C-alpha cells in the first residue's frame, strides 16, 4: 500500500495551520486518507460508458497511486481503454481507531474528513500493473483467489484534481500534481485559527501542554 505501509502508520500532526500552508496540509491529509482507506465509492463520468457508480476495494502505491481490481464485465470497459472517473472517500469509512466514530463525529461533520479524487481511470500496464497488483493483494488477500474467468484487471485512477473538507472553514482544492507531491499525514485542523496566521498556528501546535 502507501508510503506508510509495512512500518507504522502515517504521522498525525497536532494542528493544521490556516493560511499559506493550508493547501499543503490538506494535500497531505488526502494522501493519508487514500492510504488508510480500503474501499471507496467510484463514479464514472464518461461516454461511451453509462454513468454509473460502485463501491470498490482500493489500495494505494507509495507515490499515491490509486489502484483497483475490476472485472471487465463490472467496469463495462470492454474495448474502452480509459474514462473519466472519481473516487470518494470518507474518514467515517475507516476503522474504530481512525474513523470518525472514535471522536463521536457524525459523518457529515466537517471535521470528519472526506475527499473526492477526480481523473482518468485506465488499465494499468507494465510496471504499474505489477506494482498495483502487489499493493491490492497485500491489502486485500482474498483477491488472489478470485475467479480467473471473470477477467479481473488492475486499474489506476490518474488523479487530476482533489476536493477535500476536513474541518471548519470550507473545502480545499488542489491539483493532482500537488496530491502526488504530498506525503501521507493526518493533519487535524484546529479552530478557531490562532491570531497571527499560519506561523502562530504552528507555534501553538508545537507548544507543550499547559
UniProtKB/TrEMBL annotation:
Domain CREG-like beta-barrel: 24-180
GO cellular component, one term: cytoplasm
InterPro entries, alphabetized: CREG_beta-barrel, Split_barrel_FMN-bd
Chain segments carrying region Disordered: 190-210
Composition-biased stretches (Low complexity): 193-210
Origin: domain of life: Eukaryota
Cited Pfam families: CREG_beta-barrel
Entry protein name: CREG-like beta-barrel domain-containing protein
Lineage: Eukaryota, Viridiplantae, Prasinodermophyta, Prasinodermophyceae, Prasinodermales
Amino acid at each position: 500500500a502507501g508510503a506508510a505501509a509495512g512500518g507504522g502508520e502515517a504521522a498525525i500532526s497536532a494542528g493544521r495551520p490556516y493560511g499559506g500552508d493550508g493547501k499543503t496540509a490538506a494535500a497531505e491529509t488526502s494522501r493519508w486518507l487514500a492510504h488508510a482507506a480500503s474501499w471507496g465509492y467510484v463514479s464514472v463520468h464518461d461516454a461511451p460508458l453509462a454513468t454509473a457508480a460502485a463501491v470498490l476495494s482500493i489500495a494505494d502505491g507509495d507515490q499515491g497511486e490509486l489502484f483497483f481490481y475490476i472485472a471487465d464485465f463490472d467496469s463495462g470497459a470492454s474495448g474502452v481503454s480509459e474514462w473519466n472517473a472519481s473516487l470518494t472517500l470518507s474518514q467515517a469509512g475507516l476503522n474504530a481507531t481512525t474513523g470518525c466514530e472514535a471522536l463521536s463525529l457524525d459523518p457529515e461533520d466537517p471535521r470528519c474528513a472526506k475527499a473526492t479524487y477526480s481523473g482518468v481511470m485506465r488499465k494499468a500496464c507494465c510496471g504499474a500493473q505489477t506494482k498495483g497488483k502487489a499493493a491490492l493483494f497485500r491489502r486485500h488477500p482474498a483477491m488472489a483467489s478470485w475467479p480467473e474467468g471473470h477477467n479481473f484487471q488492475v486499474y489506476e485512477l490518474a488523479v487530476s484534481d482533489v476536493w477535500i473538507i476536513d474541518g471548519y472553514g470550507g473545502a480545499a482544492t488542489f491539483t493532482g500534481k500537488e496530491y502526488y507531491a504530498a506525503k501521507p499525514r493526518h493533519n487535524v485542523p484546529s479552530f478557531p485559527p490562532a491570531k497571527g496566521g499560519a506561523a502562530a498556528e504552528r507555534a501553538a501546535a508545537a507548544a507543550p501542554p499547559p
